[in-house]
Write a structure and sequence with these properties.
This protein is mainly beta. It has one domain (about 5-105): Rieske Iron-sulfur Protein, CATH 2.102.10. The chain is about 0% helix and about 40% strand. The chain contains no helices and eleven strands. The chain has strands at about 5-10, 20-25, 25-35, 35-40, 55, 60, 70, 75-80, 90, 90-95, 95-100. The strands form three sheets. A four-stranded antiparallel sheet has the order 2-3-4-9, with no helix packed on it. A four-stranded antiparallel sheet has the order 5-6-7-8, with no helix packed on it. Strand 2 (about 20-25) and strand 3 (about 25-35) form a beta hairpin.
Length: about 120
């Protein structure tokens, strides 16, 4: 695990809340579910839409464009049209801030579209 970077105050995220931010050139979605904080790529693996503009229901975030869903705990893809997971990042809470470890190497790969 690399350097932990403070990204958002704990007070900025209520239960079931999420916020998009950029860390080291990587778009990151930070959310709180059941008192736990999670960080994952803020780009849908299907069409690179901002997941932070979607909806969070329990541990699942839904892409606003095509409705693909991802588990915020693991980044696992839970429904089509996406088929690839999204990257997750280590999270700790220190000094009232949610801190995550992100490096420039964590930028997501180019999108994959299935053939028509």
């Amino acid at each position: 695990m690399g350097e932990m970077i403070p990204v958002v105050p704990v007070a900025a995220l209520e239960e079931g809340g999420m916020i998009g931010t950029r860390v080291n050139g990587v778009d990151v979605l930070v959310c709180q579910v059941e008192g736990q904080y999670y960080a994952l790529s803020d780009l849908c693996s299907h069409a690179r839409q901002a997941l932070s503009k979607g909806r969070l229901a329990g541990h699942l975030v839904r892409c606003p464009l095509h409705g693909a869903r991802f588990d915020v705990r693991s980044g696992a893809c839970m429904s089509p049209p996406a088929s690839q997971p999204v990257k997750t990042f280590p999270v700790v809470v220190e000094g009232g801030k949610v801190c995550i470890s992100v490096s420039a190497d964590d930028r997501p790969p180019p999108p994959r579209f299935s053939p028509f």
